[in-house]
Design a protein that fits this description.
- The protein has 332 residues and is α+β, with helices and mostly antiparallel strands.
- Helix content is 50%, strand content 10%.
- The chain is built from 15 helices and seven strands.
- The strands form two sheets. It has a five-stranded antiparallel beta sheet with strand order 6-5-4-3-7, sandwiched between helices.
- A hairpin with a 6-residue loop joins strand 1 and strand 2.
- Helix 5 crosses helix 9.
- The N and C termini lie far apart (58 Å).
């Protein structure tokens, strides 16, 4: 994680560098060109279809359709759960394997800056993810809820986000801009090379942060403290900074949560139910009678289960004898 002191300046410098880089960028496909005012003489390229080639009029039509698809999905803001559900499998896998820490470092009203570690191949040691909680004002003013209840409600509401990494900059910043969930510099240049199909919504750093926002006790405590301060202000304003000790303790105590979509959770829950049912069947199976030596040498039968079920049970670590006992219990 490194030292938190100076991290805010580090984040500002990264944002300033990104802005300056974008100001001198060449070969940007701007909004006017996307809607039809494109000069083919510019010979801009795209990877639409899987290969690098010049943009055609048909490509522009596909780009416009992809934009409309994104805008239909979002009406301003996106929930943490939606970010995880709409992310790409490759980004979820990277977040799970490479990004093991995301800690709230500071907050100014509803805008919270998180610090994450960087991936193993990065040229930096950490990244900064800014999250704007759009319902902060409502949570700070909600007299019907105590600060902790309000914080728990807040983290489930729509938000906006930004990350200083290249993946967000070149693949997803345009999507967050047209989807109205961008918390950083707006991007008007269509990602014709990196992401012409406009797939996905969040990089691995953002996904780790969203998983923490949704379930972490550390984030809940941080938001609770922020709202407590806000309620002591006549204008619901609050500033909160983690100390180095607080951040390091949070990083140590927090468990690394699995990056799972809602569908992943459903499948895991279904497997858990089957495991419990099987264990229950085994526990209720009658104790076997004393067997002869010849019978003891015979392997138990798993008749009654199909091959897929047997494979599932074995993946749970059950022995052939346990499976056979479950089959016997189920046949009674």
């Amino acid at each position: 994680m490194g030292k938190l002191y100076g991290s805010a300046t580090e984040a500002k410098e990264a944002a300033a560098f990104d802005k300056a880089r974008r100001a001198v960028a060449q070969n940007i496909l701007n909004p006017k060109e996307v809607v039809g005012e494109y000069d083919a003489g510019r010979v801009l390229m795209t990877t639409l279809g899987g290969e690098v080639r010049p943009i055609s009029a048909d490509d522009l039509a596909v780009f416009r359709q992809n934009i409309r698809t994104v805008q239909r999905h979002f009406k301003g803001g996106i929930r943490a759960r939606q970010v995880l559900d709409m992310s790409l499998p490759v980004d979820r896998e990277r977040a799970q394997r490479e990004i093991r820490m995301a800690v709230p470092a500071s907050a100014s009203n509803g805008r919270v800056r998180f610090v994450t570690n960087a991936g193993p191949d990065s040229n930096v040691s950490r990244h900064h993810v800014a999250v704007e909680f759009m319902s902060y004002g409502a949570a700070a003013s909600a007299g019907a809820k105590n600060p902790k209840q309000a914080a728990n409600w807040l983290r489930k509401q729509p938000l906006k986000f930004d990350c200083d990494c290249g993946r967000h900059t070149y693949w997803f910043r345009y999507i967050s801009t047209i989807g109205s969930f961008n918390a950083g510099r707006a991007e008007t240049g269509f990602p014709k090379i990196r992401n012409p199909n406009l797939h996905g919504v969040g990089c691995k750093h953002v996904l780790r942060v969203m998983a923490e926002i949704e379930s972490s006790g550390t984030v809940l405590l941080f938001l609770t403290r922020l709202l407590e301060r806000a309620r002591n202000s006549d204008e619901n304003k609050a500033v909160l900074r983690q100390t180095q000790k607080e951040a390091e303790e949070a990083a140590k105590k927090g468990r690394v949560r699995d990056i799972k979509t809602t569908e992943d959770r459903r499948k895991a829950a279904a497997i858990a139910r089957e495991r419990r049912a099987l264990q229950d069947a085994i526990s209720k199976a009658p104790k076997p009678k004393k067997l002869t030596a010849a019978t003891r040498r015979a392997k138990p039968s798993a008749a009654g289960f199909n091959a897929a079920q047997i494979a599932l049970f074995k993946s749970m670590g059950l022995s052939d004898e346990q499976i056979a006992l479950a089959a016997a219990a189920g046949s009674k």
